[in-house]
Amino acid sequence: MQQYFQPYRSKHICNPKKNRTANKLYSYPNIMKTKLIISFLSSMLVFLLTCWTSGYSLYVSAMVGACCFFALTYYVVEKYAAPNTFGAAYVTAISLGRVILEIPLRISNFPETLFSMFTTFVAIVSILLASLYFKEKRYSVLFLSIVILVLLSTVAQAEWLHAFRHDR
Predict the structure, then answer these.
(1) What is the pLDDT of residues 101-143, one digit of tens each?
(2) 12 phi and psi angles, rounded to 5 deg
(3) Per the confidence metrics, is the pTM higher than 0.85?
(4) Domain boundaries, the chain
(5) Would you list the DSSP string of 60-126?
(6) Exposed, middle or buried by CB within 10 Å (0-12, 13-18, 19+), for 128?
(7) Of 81, 67, 66, 76, nearest to 40 (Cα)?
(8) Is the sign of the CA dihedral 87, 143, 64, 166 positive or negative?
């Protein structure tokens, strides 16, 4: 009668290849989710740390955001993504972390916030260019990325703001 009340003990507790339940905590999807959440939260933190620069100038905000998100994306993709890949999941998580805090403000006051939409566009472009640089790992791609980001942050930003001044 005693044998029915004994808890079941697996013979394979010490052998992780045979005991699949012991490995569920460290399985690939759980680690991937953790890395994606870290990427998302770090992107939100960078956005919160750099959003105050738009109070000075939208040019400064676009340049600082581009530099910070380029560096963050390259670091995250370099650390977590597989070599010779684009790191699309991490790029998506970082992009979503960049825009998720802006969405309620932009939905409620879309016409009033449209003039600052270009800084978000520059940040998303910098995220994509950083992942492209990670994949290619050539200095020519880095140089062209820097040139594109500087032109977007200065000349294209000026044209965007000029178009909104004439529109009103």
Answers:
(1) 999 988 998 888 888 899 999 999 999 999 999 998 899 999 9
(2) -110, 35
(3) no
(4) 28-167
(5) HHHHHHHHHHHHHHHHHHHHHSPTTS--HHHHHHHHHHHHTTTHHHHHHTHHHHGGGHHHHHHHHHH
(6) middle
(7) 76
(8) negative
